[in-house]
Design brief:
Blueprint (H helix, E strand, L loop, with lengths): L1 H22 L4 H8 L12 H4 L2 H9 L13 E4 L3 E8 L3 E6 L3 E6 H7 L2 E3 L3
Antiparallel strand pairs: 1-2, 1-5, 2-3, 3-4
């Protein structure tokens, strides 16, 4: 029963990530590569949000010099409630982690830092 519930949570989180892709204002290629744990250093220039100019505004806003340091992409982490996971995406104000038994969770960087919600696991 617990395994079925965990699978349901993971599937539900995947649907939420697809919704995030559909609603994003940033470069869709950056978003999609982030889903798979890859990093694209700048907007692609080829997707609809790049063509509209929206992606460049979002990219500039998210990559300010005063952005807080956070966990690296692909870092293994542990959450106090959700257990072990891997960092899939890091943004200015949020971090996306895929937890083994919970699926994707988007966390506030501020909350993670203030409440020490994540700890790094050895590689």
């Amino acid at each position: 029963m617990q395994q079925a519930e965990a699978q349901h949570r993971v599937e539900k989180s995947r649907v939420q990530m697809v919704r995030g892709y559909a609603e994003t204002l940033e470069c869709r290629r950056i978003f999609l590569l982030g889903y798979f744990g890859e990093d694209l250093p700048s907007p692609c220039g080829n997707c609809d949000t790049c063509s509209d100019g929206i992606a460049y505004e979002e990219f500039t806003r998210e990559h300010r010099d005063d952005a807080p340091a956070t966990f690296a992409i692909d870092a293994r982490v542990k959450h106090t409630k959700w257990g072990a996971g891997v960092v899939m995406r890091v943004e200015d104000d949020r971090i996306t982690v895929f937890f083994d038994d919970e699926g994707y969770k988007v966390l506030s960087v501020e909350a993670v830092q203030q409440n020490r919600l994540l700890t790094l696991l050895p590689a």
